[in-house]
Amino acid sequence: MIWPRKWQVGKILFLLTRYTPMLLIASTILNGYKINVVFPPQVCSGLWLTGQVSFTITSWSSDTLNPRILATVALLLCLYALLGSKRRYLAVLLATHTGLFLGTLLQEIGWMREGSYGTVGSFSHPSN
Asked: Which segments cross the bilayer (predicted)?
């Protein structure tokens, strides 16, 4: 159980990655869609701020350049704890994660240099 534990980095990361998407969805619905409810300006400001903060945290959890960095750090902390908190396991986990991350990042940089993906006119239609 995570609830009775003390507030530590692992618990904070878990709660952030678990519950901020729900805040983002709720604030988007209340701010972005017509729901026929009139909110006072203070409530609107609070909803907007909640949406901005939860969007930032959620994008840190699922950004394409940094693959789900908060969720990944939480997972690495959990694996490290399950493996007995030994430094050699931490080194293996960090080396593996860093290697996989850099491999993905270098591949994306190569695609960006090509400039052929996502540009206008990169897809040619067959002529009749």
From this structure: 12-33, 65-83, 90-107
